[in-house]
């Protein structure tokens, strides 16, 4: 139910259901947290998302999966917390995939952060050296590197 509400843009209702579960001492699972974090992301609720991410780990003992990290990177990125998003990626137990890195790269474009974008692009090139489609997302990075040269 929470995931469905989140996907369809009903963040407030999704969060209300989550807080109701918590009040009734019903233990949420990892899928519930994906839905709630997604709702926070789409509604721009950065502080609530941070709180829920920490609740998930500290109160419920649920280790974040790549989907949780993806939601948090997107949430932090949309909120302009690009350095925090980059640090979160670095702290993951496994290597970030192109989807998570792409979310951060898109946020770098939206917020004009060329320095982090350059680092992200380098990581993407390591993962997928022949996929240059993501470079369209960051033309300012290429301009900074000298008229469109690859970096």
UniProtKB/TrEMBL annotation:
<dbReference type="GO" id="GO:0003723">
    <property type="term" value="F:RNA binding"/>
</dbReference>
<protein>
    <submittedName>
        <fullName>Pentatricopeptide repeat-containing protein, mitochondrial</fullName>
    </submittedName>
</protein>
<dbReference type="GO" id="GO:0009451">
    <property type="term" value="P:RNA modification"/>
</dbReference>
<keyword id="KW-0677">Repeat</keyword>
<dbReference type="Pfam" id="PF01535">
    <property type="entry name" value="PPR"/>
</dbReference>
<dbReference type="InterPro" id="IPR002885">
    <property type="entry name" value="PPR_rpt"/>
</dbReference>
<dbReference type="InterPro" id="IPR011990">
    <property type="entry name" value="TPR-like_helical_dom_sf"/>
</dbReference>
<dbReference type="InterPro" id="IPR046960">
    <property type="entry name" value="PPR_At4g14850-like_plant"/>
</dbReference>
């Amino acid at each position: 139910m929470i995931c469905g509400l989140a996907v369809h843009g009903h963040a407030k209702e999704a969060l209300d259901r989550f807080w109701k579960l918590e009040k009734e001492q019903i233990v949420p699972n990892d899928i519930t947290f994906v839905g709630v974090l997604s709702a926070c992301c789409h509604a721009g609720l950065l502080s609530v998302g941070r709180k829920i991410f920490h609740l998930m780990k500290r109160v419920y003992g649920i280790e974040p999966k790549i989907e949780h990290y993806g939601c948090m990177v997107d949430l932090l990125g949309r909120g302009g917390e690009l350095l925090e998003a980059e640090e979160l990626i670095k702290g993951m137990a496994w290597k970030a995939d192109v989807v998570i890195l792409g979310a951060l790269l898109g946020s770098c474009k939206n917020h004009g952060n060329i320095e982090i974008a350059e680092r992200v692009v380098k990581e993407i090139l390591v993962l997928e050296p022949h996929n240059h489609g993501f470079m369209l997302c960051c033309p300012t990075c290429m301009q900074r590197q000298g008229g469109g040269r690859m970096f």
